[in-house]
Automatic annotation (TrEMBL):
Homodimer. Belongs to the class-I pyridoxal-phosphate-dependent aminotransferase family. Residues 91-458 form the Aminotransferase class I/classII large domain. PROSITE patterns: AA_TRANSFER_CLASS_1 (PS00105). Important for the metabolism of amino acids and Krebs-cycle related organic acids. In plants, it is involved in nitrogen metabolism and in aspects of carbon and energy metabolism. It holds the Pfam family Aminotran_1_2. It comes from Populus euphratica. The keyword Transferase applies. The gene is LOC105134075. Its cofactor is pyridoxal 5'-phosphate. Its EC number is 2.6.1.1. This is Aspartate aminotransferase.
Length: 466
């Protein structure tokens, strides 16, 4: 804690005590934290050399300039990992954050990532600053991976692609663009959604509202509600859509439903804004998981897409992703890109190179690219296996007749269990299963060996806690 020097003039030394007492009352001081100096010359900083014939004193007080700052609550997702680390129980299980683990529940660095890093060392690549928009080779492959290399939007140079600090940083750049160039426009977000979406738009001062998405009665998509809320929104709103593997519900629209969603967005002159954090992780196929975005692009719509390589390449801490803005002309794309760079420059200047080179090396090399696809299928396959085993365990153990088949219908990393906050608390407090309070569990953090234990925890929480 910084110490603040408070200078006071006082006629007698005894007066200093009352000053000290007053200060004690106003601040949270311990007994040893006030030092009182009596000094005829140093009393008033502006009169350091002068003496006025009376005793002046300086009180050093341990009072922080940050006293008015309250403790922030823990993050609803990343805070779960902190709590998990503090738990010493051997049975503990971290199903909070969406991060892939091996069957041994260890973090996994993809083989293709290690190979791409070796390539970087062999080539002796340097650490010079990147341009503000990021690594050109990365920006090229990331747009191609998303839209398909032969997509007209790429051939016609209608995509403004800027490397971002993973999915979050890319969303945040887009949010800043919206705030600057579409003042008053609101962003529609699904209810529920990934917890950080609201933070991102709040921080960027972009108004948002929610559209219906999840129907707890059917444990499925509330498609009618979604369509009518998008229709009811003011013209020209941004509609945030999860490209695939909706977080937290694991429920995606069907291809026919995507067409209808595109219809209403077009009718209302809204602007689709995709968050693609799980390309390849939903179905195991990079192309299939990009089909929603490609469907909108094929209609000639302008749209925004934030991408992340945290999950599909396991590059969580490299913070590598991109924001893509598809515009109706190459000229508009060039202008949008220049403004995205202008937003990035005072915030972080330019992005980091390591993750960008990994992605460029993997996607740009046909052999590594194929190896990546195989590894991604392996990861997606492991998650599907634990999903099945969890369903089997729940169905075998739960004698109440409850239908747990919704778990098999959900896709991607997560299962939205329907457990409420009190039940989720029971999962953690009694069973040492760490999860988010909205009832979401990350199946990517579950092993086959732990499925039975998890099923016991869920059944107990579901039936014995209201
Ligand atoms: N968008 C969605 C839908 C996400 O689920 C996530 C990550 C991101 C964007 C951003 O991820 P980046 O790492 O910035 O690329 N959600 C995970 C990770 C933990 C978190 O909250 O950041 C999750 O567990 O929901």
């Amino acid at each position: 804690m910084a110490s603040t020097m408070i200078s006071l003039a006082s006629a007698t030394p005894s007066a200093s005590l009352s000053v000290q007492e007053t200060l004690k009352g106003k601040t949270r001081l311990g007994s040893g934290s006030v030092s009182t100096l009596f000094n005829k010359e140093k009393g008033n900083p502006s009169n350091k050399k002068k003496s006025f014939g009376r005793i002046s004193m300086t009180v050093a007080v341990n009072v922080s300039r940050f006293e008015g700052i309250a403790m922030a609550p823990p993050d609803p997702i990343l805070g779960v990992s902190e709590a998990f680390r503090a738990d010493i129980d051997v049975k503990k299980l971290n199903l909070g954050v969406g991060a892939y683990r091996t069957e041994e529940l260890q973090p996994y660095v993809l083989d293709v990532v290690k190979k791409a890093e070796n390539l970087m060392l062999e080539r002796g690549e340097n650490k010079e600053y990147l341009p503000i928009e990021g690594l050109a080779a990365f920006n090229k492959v990331t747009a191609e991976l998303l839209f398909g290399a032969d997509n007209p939007v790429i051939e016609q140079q209608r995509v403004a692609t800027v490397q971002g600090l993973s999915g979050t940083g890319s969303l945040r750049l887009a949010a800043a663009l919206i705030e600057r160039y579409f003042p008053g426009a609101q962003v529609l977000i699904s209810s529920p959604t990934w917890g950080n979406h609201k933070n991102i738009f709040n921080d960027a001062r972009v108004p948002w509202s929610e559209y219906r998405y999840y129907d707890p009665k059917t444990v499925g998509l509330d498609f009618e509600g979604m369509i009518s809320d998008i229709k009811a929104a003011p013209e020209g709103s941004f509609v945030l859509l999860h490209g695939c593997a909706h977080n937290p519900t694991g429920i995606d629209p069907t291809p026919e439903q995507w067409e209808k969603i595109a219809d209403v967005i077009q009718e209302k002159n809204h602007i689709p804004f995709f968050d693609v954090a799980y390309q390849g992780f939903a179905s195991g196929s990079l192309d299939a998981d990009a089909s929603s975005v490609r469907l909108f692009a094929a209609r000639g719509m302008e749209l925004l897409v934030a991408q992340s390589y945290s999950k599909n390449l396991g590059l969580y801490a490299e913070r590598i992703g991109a924001i893509n803005v598809v515009c109706s002309s190459a000229d508009a794309a060039a202008r949008v890109k220049s403004q995205l760079k202008r937003i990035a420059r005072p915030m972080y200047s330019n992005p980091s190179v390591h993750g960008a080179r990994i992605v460029a090396n993997v996607v740009g090399d046909p052999a590594l690219f194929n190896e990546w696809k195989a590894e991604m299928e392996m990861m997606a396959g492991r998650i599907k296996n634990v999903r099945q085993k969890l369903f089997d365990s729940l169905s075998a153990k739960d004698k109440s007749g409850k239908d747990w088949s919704f778990i098999l219908k959900q896709i991607g990393m997560f299962s939205f269990t329907g457990l409420n906050k009190a039940q989720s608390d029971n999962m953690t407090n009694k069973w040492h299963v760490y999860m988010t309070k909205d009832g979401r569990i990350s199946l990517a953090g579950l092993s086959l060996a732990k499925c039975e234990y998890l099923a016991d925890a869920i059944i107990d929480s579901y039936h014995n806690v209201s």
